[in-house]
Write a structure and sequence with these properties.
Elements lengths: L7 E3 L8 E10 L6 E8 L5 H16 L9 H5 L4 H8 L9 H8 L10 E7 L5 H9 L20 E6 L5 E7 L2 H20 L4 H9 L9 H4 L15 H15 L9 H30 L6 H16 L3 H17 L7 E4 L5 E8 L2 H12 L14 E8 L12 E5 L15 H9 L2 E7 L6 H12 L6 E6 L12 H37 L1 E3 L12 H18 L11 E4 L3 H20 L13 H13 L10 H17 L4 E3 L5 H29 L2 H8 L6 H17 L9 H21 L2 E2 L1
Parallel strand pairs: 4-10, 4-11, 5-9, 11-12, 12-13, 14-16
Antiparallel strand pairs: 1-2, 2-3, 5-10, 6-8, 6-9, 7-8, 14-15
Helix pairs in contact: 1-3, 6-7, 6-10, 6-11, 6-12, 7-10, 10-11, 10-12, 15-16, 18-20, 19-22, 19-23, 20-21, 21-23, 21-24, 22-23
Amino acid sequence: MSPQYTAQKSRNQGREGWSVIFRHPVRLDPSTGRPGRRVRRGLGTSVDAEADVLVEQLNEILRTQSLWDPHSRQQAAGLFDGRIVDVFYEDLEAARTDFRKIRDDLLALPGAAEGYKHVLLVGTTGAGKTTVVRQLLGTDPETERFPSTSTAKTTVADTEIVLTEAGPYRAAVTFAGRDEVMDHLAENVSAAALALFQGKSEEDALRRLVDHVNQRFRFSYVLGRPELPADDDLDDEDEDDDEEKEGAAEDVLGLADLDVIDPSATVAMLVQTVPRLRSMVEKYAVEAREELRATDDDARVVEEIVEETLDTDLRSLEEFHAVVDGLLHEIELRFSLLGEGELRRTRQGWPLSWTLETEDRAVFLKTVMRFSSNYAPLFGRLLTPLVNGIRVAGPFVPTWAEASDRLVLIDVEGLGHTPKSAASVSTDLAKRIDEVDAILVVDNATAPMQAAPVAALKAVAVSGNSGKLHFLFTHFDHMKADNLPRFSDRERHVLASVENVLNAMGKELGPVGERAVRTRLERHCYFVGGMHKSLSAGGKEGKRTADHMRRLSADLSTDEAAPDTGPARPVFDRMALPLAVSEAARSFHARWRGLLGLEYNPDAPKQHWTRVKALARRLGEGWSDEYDSLKPVADLRTELQVQIFLMLQRPVRWEGGEPTEEEQRAVINEISSAVTGRLYTLTERCLKDDVQNAWLDAYRQRGAKSTFARARIIDADVFGRGAPVPTVAPSPDKNSFLKAVADILTEVADETRFVLD
């Protein structure tokens, strides 16, 4: 028998409209992995009697199990108010919102038919990708500040910019879904509670409350960043500086009068949340220790158990969710600040998209800033972390050019700094690599080709996309040394560093991968400095950089002839495929057994249990296939790509004549590209869709030794089932993965006319 859930109405302090809170009998609770997810939705009324009627209708649905099936929605629509039907059936049928399609419907990207090239910018955080975009747009870094830049991670949402020749300025923005935002808020509240349990300061807890650990959801941009007084904290600015910054903020966004929100009230709410959490944590800790009957000798073990169960148990408290609801309410209020443009919402009232069209460049950039800025004086008024995609189009012209080339610039999240070799790039980035016409690798000349950009180069090579590569090395003006007096000396110094990377890539990916990247580097490489300022100001360095930018822009927009594959077609030994798949699976398992702490792997050190748990939750919930740098689906795809790419370089023979080196490279890239497109579906199915329940089982492990239990479940029930190492003995369970890969190669062979002998 399913538990009987009851809905009740609720109203946030300072809010007129009523909401309803209930446990959903079908949707899974992320804390337990079982039905009973807590849901809070607005009822769309401030009238008590009307709210009571709506809540009773929802309770009738909760009492009638035959209405819980998604197919019963039409029947329910004939019996109950449409608002209640929307509340109950929202997200009942698992479907991932296609935000790119929403932006396409609102503001379509021009393509080859219109003479446009789509350019993907890839680079390490801080390398200067967004600064390059700013130069290609010609926006002023002081007065326009678009796109926003900083020394840390800036781009957290896909930014797509169309350089048009004329016409109005247009924008289309899409926002993260309500449940995703609530889930991250709940993680923040849990992280703040854990900090208090561990004896951290209230200031540290407050920081964790407003900024998510992976820096994607920095809610301090939306809610503000309150400061707790500290005796040793000196204020570097006087009151005049504060007034000047506040005036600048109002000038940027036009926020002289804030009638909708009270920033001081929000700050007070955030500060007061910390002692509320401390009270919850202290009460829970006392009860947990009493339940475990802990003695002084057991203190260390008990603390570890309580720490691991704290998140799950706090999420069962209504007071915990009240904190999350309060934060979400403050976030929703910020959307009321939007004056210009059109805001579209879901049927439940959550913001879905925003559009704007205007001839006024100043108004356009000032308004769009709210969705992209990281300007500290504006904290508490921005919507930046809630945006998952922003698309703009307009007649932007670089200061160093008479006109813009026909480009669509796609700036995505920076690759991040990794001390160890990065195994793979995210699934979303890999798909972008396949889709675009050109790939611009932006790297810092002072420290070129670290682990993350090298991982991106490998992803480009093994997916057959090397022919799209272009290189831009930034910060050339910072290369000051006695042994590098001339521009040519600095250029050779950078290329020498890249040479070491290419040699290592040749050993890992074979000669075809290395030569393809090397050829592009020799023909499509540029060096720039002083990109943070206008290049039209003159000076030798500025003129040289402007020249390189003009050549780069023309290069990116130029049509390149497709490489000729020639008449020859390779023949491969069919038995080479099982060896390739076995090696890929073994490498994948070795890496992840290290990450899970089941084996020692110096190249993949054990991850903290909180990160593994967060990963299990995202895959168990089905709303992501990665968490921060943990990317199992992408890792498996990469291992398969590498091994198949190596196999393709070792044909038994060639039919139709001996190909030239360029023809051989073109054939291998053609096959690799076709294989890659199918590997996305296979790896997502094997490690995400087919094993979703196992991920949930791993997530809900708790108590003593839960870290080890979670790791064993992921290793055996997820990876062991989804990507088993093929065996010599016939076994459908072990060799189904091999068969799926073999089927892909057979399909591609029919399309590209290579032979499996």
